Protein backbone atom coordinates (compact mmCIF):
# COMPACT_ATOMS: atom_id res chain seq x y z
CA UNK A 1 0.00 0.00 0.00
CA UNK A 2 1.00 3.62 -0.44
CA UNK A 3 0.44 6.55 1.89
CA UNK A 4 1.46 10.18 2.09
CA UNK A 5 2.88 11.37 5.37
CA UNK A 6 3.62 14.81 6.75
CA UNK A 7 7.38 15.22 6.19
CA UNK A 8 7.71 18.68 7.80
CA UNK A 9 5.54 21.57 8.93
CA UNK A 10 5.14 24.47 6.48
CA UNK A 11 5.84 27.91 7.96
CA UNK A 12 3.57 29.49 5.32
CA UNK A 13 2.21 28.02 2.08
CA UNK A 14 2.71 24.24 1.96
CA UNK A 15 5.26 22.97 -0.60
CA UNK A 16 6.12 19.50 -1.99
CA UNK A 17 8.90 19.18 0.64
CA UNK A 18 6.24 19.00 3.36
CA UNK A 19 4.90 15.65 2.05
CA UNK A 20 6.50 12.21 1.54
CA UNK A 21 5.16 9.16 -0.29
CA UNK A 22 5.82 5.87 1.51
CA UNK A 23 5.23 2.29 0.40
CA UNK A 24 4.76 -0.69 2.68
CA UNK A 25 3.17 -4.18 2.66
CA UNK A 26 -0.62 -4.32 2.90
CA UNK A 27 -1.58 -4.43 6.61
CA UNK A 28 -3.89 -7.16 7.94
CA UNK A 29 -6.92 -6.27 10.07
CA UNK A 30 -6.67 -7.22 13.75
CA UNK A 31 -9.61 -8.40 15.92
CA UNK A 32 -12.58 -6.03 15.53
CA UNK A 33 -11.01 -4.28 12.53
CA UNK A 34 -11.48 -4.21 8.77
CA UNK A 35 -9.17 -3.44 5.85
CA UNK A 36 -10.49 -1.24 3.03
CA UNK A 37 -9.21 -0.07 -0.32
CA UNK A 38 -9.67 3.63 -0.94
CA UNK A 39 -11.68 4.67 -4.00
CA UNK A 40 -12.04 8.44 -3.45
CA UNK A 41 -9.96 10.69 -1.24
CA UNK A 42 -11.28 14.07 -0.13
CA UNK A 43 -8.98 17.10 -0.01
CA UNK A 44 -10.29 19.84 2.30
CA UNK A 45 -8.95 23.21 3.48
CA UNK A 46 -8.99 22.09 7.17
CA UNK A 47 -6.02 19.82 6.39
CA UNK A 48 -3.79 22.91 6.23
CA UNK A 49 -4.59 23.43 9.93
CA UNK A 50 -3.67 19.83 10.75
CA UNK A 51 -0.18 20.41 9.26
CA UNK A 52 0.46 23.02 11.94
CA UNK A 53 1.41 22.26 15.54
CA UNK A 54 -0.70 25.19 16.78
CA UNK A 55 -3.46 24.37 19.27
CA UNK A 56 -6.80 23.86 17.50
CA UNK A 57 -10.09 21.98 17.78
CA UNK A 58 -8.39 18.79 16.54
CA UNK A 59 -4.94 17.40 17.22
CA UNK A 60 -2.28 18.05 14.58
CA UNK A 61 -0.90 15.38 12.26
CA UNK A 62 2.48 14.33 13.68
CA UNK A 63 5.62 14.39 11.55
CA UNK A 64 5.81 11.00 9.79
CA UNK A 65 2.08 10.35 10.33
CA UNK A 66 -0.36 9.78 7.44
CA UNK A 67 -2.13 12.99 6.40
CA UNK A 68 -5.73 13.03 7.67
CA UNK A 69 -8.61 12.64 5.19
CA UNK A 70 -12.10 11.35 4.74
CA UNK A 71 -12.36 8.65 2.06
CA UNK A 72 -14.89 6.54 0.23
CA UNK A 73 -13.60 2.98 0.41
CA UNK A 74 -14.56 -0.67 -0.13
CA UNK A 75 -14.06 -3.19 2.66
CA UNK A 76 -11.80 -5.99 1.37
CA UNK A 77 -11.18 -8.03 4.55
CA UNK A 78 -12.96 -7.87 7.86
CA UNK A 79 -12.85 -9.11 11.44
CA UNK A 80 -15.50 -6.56 12.40
CA UNK A 81 -19.05 -7.86 12.97
CA UNK A 82 -20.62 -4.80 11.34
CA UNK A 83 -18.63 -4.79 8.09
CA UNK A 84 -18.20 -7.40 5.39
CA UNK A 85 -16.06 -7.48 2.24
CA UNK A 86 -17.84 -5.53 -0.49
CA UNK A 87 -19.35 -2.96 1.91
CA UNK A 88 -18.85 0.65 0.82
CA UNK A 89 -18.02 3.14 3.55
CA UNK A 90 -17.08 6.73 4.23
CA UNK A 91 -14.16 6.45 6.63
CA UNK A 92 -11.26 8.56 7.94
CA UNK A 93 -8.51 6.49 6.30
CA UNK A 94 -6.16 9.35 5.39
CA UNK A 95 -4.07 10.04 2.28
CA UNK A 96 -3.53 6.37 1.45
CA UNK A 97 -4.47 3.61 -0.95
CA UNK A 98 -5.66 1.33 1.88
CA UNK A 99 -6.52 1.67 5.52
CA UNK A 100 -7.43 -0.24 8.67
CA UNK A 101 -10.43 0.83 10.75
CA UNK A 102 -12.16 -0.32 13.93
CA UNK A 103 -15.37 1.37 12.76
CA UNK A 104 -14.81 4.70 14.55
CA UNK A 105 -16.41 7.57 12.60
CA UNK A 106 -17.31 5.18 9.77
CA UNK A 107 -20.59 5.42 7.88
CA UNK A 108 -21.93 2.78 5.52
CA UNK A 109 -23.03 3.86 2.06
CA UNK A 110 -26.27 2.40 0.80
CA UNK A 111 -25.54 1.51 -2.84
CA UNK A 112 -29.31 1.45 -3.53
CA UNK A 113 -29.45 5.20 -2.83
CA UNK A 114 -28.05 5.66 -6.34
CA UNK A 115 -25.82 8.69 -5.70
CA UNK A 116 -22.32 8.64 -7.22
CA UNK A 117 -19.81 7.52 -4.59
CA UNK A 118 -17.82 10.76 -4.78
CA UNK A 119 -20.90 12.75 -3.69
CA UNK A 120 -20.53 11.29 -0.18
CA UNK A 121 -17.38 13.41 0.24
CA UNK A 122 -18.95 16.57 -1.19
CA UNK A 123 -22.55 17.63 -1.64
CA UNK A 124 -23.90 14.73 0.48
CA UNK A 125 -20.91 14.59 2.81
CA UNK A 126 -19.08 16.78 5.31
CA UNK A 127 -19.00 19.96 3.14
CA UNK A 128 -22.70 19.60 2.31
CA UNK A 129 -23.61 19.19 5.98
CA UNK A 130 -21.48 22.25 6.75
CA UNK A 131 -23.42 24.32 4.22
CA UNK A 132 -26.80 23.15 5.52
CA UNK A 133 -25.98 23.61 9.23
CA UNK A 134 -24.40 27.01 8.64
CA UNK A 135 -27.38 28.30 6.71
CA UNK A 136 -30.18 26.82 8.83
CA UNK A 137 -28.84 26.47 12.38
CA UNK A 138 -26.19 29.18 12.60
CA UNK A 139 -27.56 31.94 10.35
CA UNK A 140 -31.21 30.96 10.81
CA UNK A 141 -31.64 32.31 7.31
CA UNK A 142 -35.10 33.43 6.22
CA UNK A 143 -36.95 33.91 2.92
CA UNK A 144 -36.65 37.44 1.58
CA UNK A 145 -33.26 38.10 3.19
CA UNK A 146 -30.03 38.83 1.31
CA UNK A 147 -27.03 36.59 1.86
CA UNK A 148 -23.40 36.91 0.76
CA UNK A 149 -21.48 33.64 0.32
CA UNK A 150 -17.70 33.57 -0.14
CA UNK A 151 -15.77 30.76 -1.88
CA UNK A 152 -19.10 30.64 -3.68
CA UNK A 153 -18.43 27.86 -6.18
CA UNK A 154 -16.57 25.58 -3.75
CA UNK A 155 -17.85 22.46 -2.05
CA UNK A 156 -19.48 24.37 0.81
CA UNK A 157 -20.32 27.71 -0.83
CA UNK A 158 -22.03 26.26 -3.90
CA UNK A 159 -24.55 24.41 -1.73
CA UNK A 160 -25.07 27.35 0.65
CA UNK A 161 -26.05 29.56 -2.29
CA UNK A 162 -28.37 27.01 -3.88
CA UNK A 163 -30.14 26.20 -0.62
CA UNK A 164 -30.51 29.93 0.05
CA UNK A 165 -32.08 30.44 -3.40
CA UNK A 166 -34.47 27.55 -2.73
CA UNK A 167 -35.46 29.32 0.50
CA UNK A 168 -36.33 32.46 -1.47
CA UNK A 169 -33.31 34.54 -0.47
CA UNK A 170 -31.31 36.92 -2.64
CA UNK A 171 -27.87 35.35 -3.07
CA UNK A 172 -24.65 37.21 -3.82
CA UNK A 173 -21.58 35.04 -4.32
CA UNK A 174 -17.95 36.09 -4.13
CA UNK A 175 -15.59 33.87 -6.11
CA UNK A 176 -12.21 33.97 -7.82
CA UNK A 177 -12.37 34.58 -11.58
CA UNK A 178 -14.90 35.27 -14.31
CA UNK A 179 -15.55 31.57 -15.07
CA UNK A 180 -16.47 30.77 -11.49
CA UNK A 181 -18.71 33.85 -11.26
CA UNK A 182 -20.48 32.99 -14.51
CA UNK A 183 -21.08 29.44 -13.27
CA UNK A 184 -22.50 30.72 -9.96
CA UNK A 185 -25.08 32.85 -11.75
CA UNK A 186 -25.88 30.76 -14.82
CA UNK A 187 -25.76 27.23 -13.38
CA UNK A 188 -26.23 27.63 -9.64
CA UNK A 189 -28.87 30.36 -9.97
CA UNK A 190 -27.19 33.00 -7.77
CA UNK A 191 -28.54 36.53 -8.25
CA UNK A 192 -25.02 37.94 -8.62
CA UNK A 193 -21.41 36.85 -8.18
CA UNK A 194 -18.45 39.17 -7.70
CA UNK A 195 -14.85 38.39 -8.62
CA UNK A 196 -12.62 39.07 -5.62
CA UNK A 197 -9.47 38.52 -7.67
CA UNK A 198 -10.43 41.25 -10.19
CA UNK A 199 -11.22 43.83 -7.48
CA UNK A 200 -8.20 45.99 -6.63
CA UNK A 201 -8.93 46.12 -2.90
CA UNK A 202 -11.59 45.61 -0.23
CA UNK A 203 -13.06 49.05 -0.91
CA UNK A 204 -13.71 48.28 -4.58
CA UNK A 205 -15.18 44.87 -3.77
CA UNK A 206 -17.29 46.51 -1.06
CA UNK A 207 -18.74 48.95 -3.59
CA UNK A 208 -19.66 46.06 -5.88
CA UNK A 209 -21.43 44.31 -3.02
CA UNK A 210 -23.29 47.56 -2.20
CA UNK A 211 -24.44 47.80 -5.82
CA UNK A 212 -25.68 44.18 -5.79
CA UNK A 213 -27.37 44.61 -2.38
CA UNK A 214 -28.53 48.23 -2.22
CA UNK A 215 -30.65 47.56 0.91
CA UNK A 216 -27.80 45.82 2.72
CA UNK A 217 -26.99 42.25 3.71
CA UNK A 218 -28.67 40.29 6.51
CA UNK A 219 -26.51 37.14 6.36
CA UNK A 220 -22.87 36.48 5.54
CA UNK A 221 -21.62 32.89 5.15
CA UNK A 222 -17.93 33.46 5.84
CA UNK A 223 -15.50 31.02 4.24
CA UNK A 224 -12.45 33.14 3.51
CA UNK A 225 -11.58 36.18 5.69
CA UNK A 226 -9.06 38.56 4.08
CA UNK A 227 -10.16 41.17 1.56
CA UNK A 228 -13.63 39.67 1.17
CA UNK A 229 -14.45 39.98 4.87
CA UNK A 230 -13.38 43.62 4.86
CA UNK A 231 -15.58 44.23 1.82
CA UNK A 232 -18.67 42.55 3.27
CA UNK A 233 -18.63 44.09 6.78
CA UNK A 234 -19.66 47.67 5.87
CA UNK A 235 -22.55 46.22 3.85
CA UNK A 236 -24.01 44.26 6.76
CA UNK A 237 -27.35 45.52 8.01
CA UNK A 238 -27.81 46.40 11.67
CA UNK A 239 -28.43 43.14 13.59
CA UNK A 240 -27.05 41.12 10.64
CA UNK A 241 -25.67 37.60 11.25
CA UNK A 242 -22.37 36.02 10.23
CA UNK A 243 -21.74 32.27 10.18
CA UNK A 244 -17.97 31.96 10.61
CA UNK A 245 -17.22 28.73 8.79
CA UNK A 246 -13.70 29.27 7.48
CA UNK A 247 -10.98 31.83 6.73
CA UNK A 248 -8.92 30.22 4.01
CA UNK A 249 -7.24 33.48 2.95
CA UNK A 250 -5.33 33.33 6.24
CA UNK A 251 -4.61 29.60 6.59
CA UNK A 252 -1.09 30.02 5.24
CA UNK A 253 -0.63 33.46 6.71
CA UNK A 254 -0.31 35.29 3.39
CA UNK A 255 -3.22 37.69 2.85
CA UNK A 256 -3.62 41.05 4.59
CA UNK A 257 -4.84 40.83 8.18
CA UNK A 258 -8.13 42.75 8.36
CA UNK A 259 -7.36 45.21 11.19
CA UNK A 260 -9.07 44.18 14.42
CA UNK A 261 -10.49 47.69 15.03
CA UNK A 262 -12.19 47.54 11.62
CA UNK A 263 -13.69 44.12 12.27
CA UNK A 264 -14.65 44.66 15.93
CA UNK A 265 -15.87 48.16 15.09
CA UNK A 266 -18.28 46.85 12.48
CA UNK A 267 -19.53 44.11 14.80
CA UNK A 268 -20.16 46.65 17.55
CA UNK A 269 -21.65 49.52 15.54
CA UNK A 270 -23.83 47.27 13.39
CA UNK A 271 -24.68 44.98 16.38
CA UNK A 272 -23.78 41.90 14.37
CA UNK A 273 -24.13 38.36 15.68
CA UNK A 274 -21.07 36.31 14.70
CA UNK A 275 -20.98 32.59 15.43
CA UNK A 276 -18.14 30.23 14.64
CA UNK A 277 -18.95 26.57 14.17
CA UNK A 278 -17.07 23.31 13.60
CA UNK A 279 -19.06 20.72 11.77
CA UNK A 280 -17.63 17.79 13.74
CA UNK A 281 -19.84 18.97 16.65
CA UNK A 282 -22.97 18.82 14.52
CA UNK A 283 -23.26 15.32 13.10
CA UNK A 284 -26.57 14.88 14.95
CA UNK A 285 -28.00 17.08 12.16
CA UNK A 286 -26.96 14.68 9.41
CA UNK A 287 -30.28 12.78 9.09
CA UNK A 288 -32.25 16.03 8.64
CA UNK A 289 -29.66 17.31 6.14
CA UNK A 290 -29.70 14.10 4.09
CA UNK A 291 -33.51 13.95 4.13
CA UNK A 292 -33.73 17.45 2.66
CA UNK A 293 -30.76 17.56 0.29
CA UNK A 294 -30.38 14.01 -1.12
CA UNK A 295 -33.69 14.05 -3.05
CA UNK A 296 -32.81 17.44 -4.53
CA UNK A 297 -29.43 16.17 -5.67
CA UNK A 298 -31.08 13.06 -7.12
CA UNK A 299 -33.71 15.04 -9.07
CA UNK A 300 -31.13 17.51 -10.39
CA UNK A 301 -32.45 20.57 -8.54
CA UNK A 302 -29.11 20.93 -6.78
CA UNK A 303 -26.01 21.07 -8.96
CA UNK A 304 -22.47 20.29 -7.93
CA UNK A 305 -19.10 20.20 -9.56
CA UNK A 306 -15.90 18.29 -8.85
CA UNK A 307 -12.21 18.69 -9.63
CA UNK A 308 -10.53 15.29 -9.75
CA UNK A 309 -6.80 14.58 -9.44
CA UNK A 310 -5.72 11.12 -10.54
CA UNK A 311 -3.67 8.92 -8.17
CA UNK A 312 -2.35 9.32 -4.64
CA UNK A 313 0.97 10.72 -5.91
CA UNK A 314 -0.88 13.80 -7.16
CA UNK A 315 -2.66 14.55 -3.87
CA UNK A 316 -0.07 17.07 -2.55
CA UNK A 317 -0.07 19.12 -5.77
CA UNK A 318 -3.89 19.11 -5.90
CA UNK A 319 -4.07 20.16 -2.24
CA UNK A 320 -1.63 23.04 -2.72
CA UNK A 321 -3.54 24.18 -5.80
CA UNK A 322 -6.86 24.04 -3.97
CA UNK A 323 -5.59 26.38 -1.25
CA UNK A 324 -4.94 28.92 -4.03
CA UNK A 325 -8.34 28.51 -5.69
CA UNK A 326 -7.18 26.03 -8.38
CA UNK A 327 -10.18 23.78 -7.73
CA UNK A 328 -13.57 24.38 -9.31
CA UNK A 329 -16.04 22.62 -6.99
CA UNK A 330 -15.23 19.78 -4.62
CA UNK A 331 -11.57 18.70 -4.79
CA UNK A 332 -11.12 14.92 -4.91
CA UNK A 333 -8.40 12.41 -5.69
CA UNK A 334 -9.35 9.20 -7.47
CA UNK A 335 -7.38 6.37 -5.88
CA UNK A 336 -9.14 3.25 -7.21
CA UNK A 337 -11.98 2.11 -9.46
CA UNK A 338 -15.59 2.62 -8.27
P1 LIG B 1 -13.54 25.11 -1.55
O1 LIG B 1 -14.00 24.00 -2.42
O2 LIG B 1 -14.34 26.35 -1.45
O3 LIG B 1 -12.03 25.45 -1.93
C1 LIG B 1 -11.33 26.49 -1.34
C2 LIG B 1 -11.62 27.81 -2.08
O4 LIG B 1 -11.22 28.90 -1.26
C3 LIG B 1 -10.78 28.01 -3.32
O5 LIG B 1 -11.31 27.34 -4.44
C4 LIG B 1 -10.84 29.52 -3.50
O6 LIG B 1 -11.99 29.86 -4.26
C5 LIG B 1 -11.07 30.04 -2.08
N1 LIG B 1 -9.92 30.85 -1.67
C6 LIG B 1 -8.65 30.45 -1.51
N2 LIG B 1 -7.88 31.51 -1.15
C7 LIG B 1 -8.72 32.59 -1.10
C8 LIG B 1 -8.52 33.96 -0.78
N3 LIG B 1 -7.31 34.44 -0.45
N4 LIG B 1 -9.59 34.78 -0.80
C9 LIG B 1 -10.81 34.32 -1.13
N5 LIG B 1 -11.05 33.01 -1.44
C10 LIG B 1 -10.01 32.17 -1.42
O7 LIG B 1 -13.37 24.54 -0.07
P2 LIG B 1 -14.52 24.02 0.90
O8 LIG B 1 -15.84 24.35 0.31
O9 LIG B 1 -14.21 22.64 1.29
O10 LIG B 1 -14.30 24.95 2.19
C11 LIG B 1 -14.68 26.31 2.16
C12 LIG B 1 -14.38 26.92 3.53
O11 LIG B 1 -15.16 26.27 4.51
C13 LIG B 1 -12.93 26.79 3.97
O12 LIG B 1 -12.53 27.94 4.65
C14 LIG B 1 -12.97 25.61 4.92
O13 LIG B 1 -11.92 25.63 5.86
C15 LIG B 1 -14.33 25.85 5.57
N6 LIG B 1 -14.91 24.66 6.18
C16 LIG B 1 -15.24 24.76 7.50
C17 LIG B 1 -15.85 23.72 8.14
C18 LIG B 1 -16.24 23.89 9.57
O14 LIG B 1 -16.54 22.90 10.22
N7 LIG B 1 -16.24 25.10 10.09
C19 LIG B 1 -16.11 22.44 7.44
C20 LIG B 1 -15.79 22.47 6.02
C21 LIG B 1 -15.19 23.55 5.44
P3 LIG B 1 -12.01 31.12 -5.27
O15 LIG B 1 -11.25 30.69 -6.47
O16 LIG B 1 -13.43 31.33 -5.49
O17 LIG B 1 -11.31 32.24 -4.55
UniProtKB/TrEMBL annotation:
Give GO MF terms, alphabetically. oxidoreductase activity
Q: Name one Pfam family in it.
A: ADH_zinc_N
The Enoyl reductase (ER) domain covers which part of the protein? 15-333
Q: What is its EC number?
A: 1.-.-.-
Superkingdom of origin: Bacteria
Q: Which UniProt keywords apply?
A: Oxidoreductase
- PANTHER family hit by this protein: PROSTAGLANDIN REDUCTASE, PROSTAGLANDIN REDUCTASE 1
Q: What is this protein called?
A: NADP-dependent oxidoreductase
Source species, please?
Acidimangrovimonas pyrenivorans
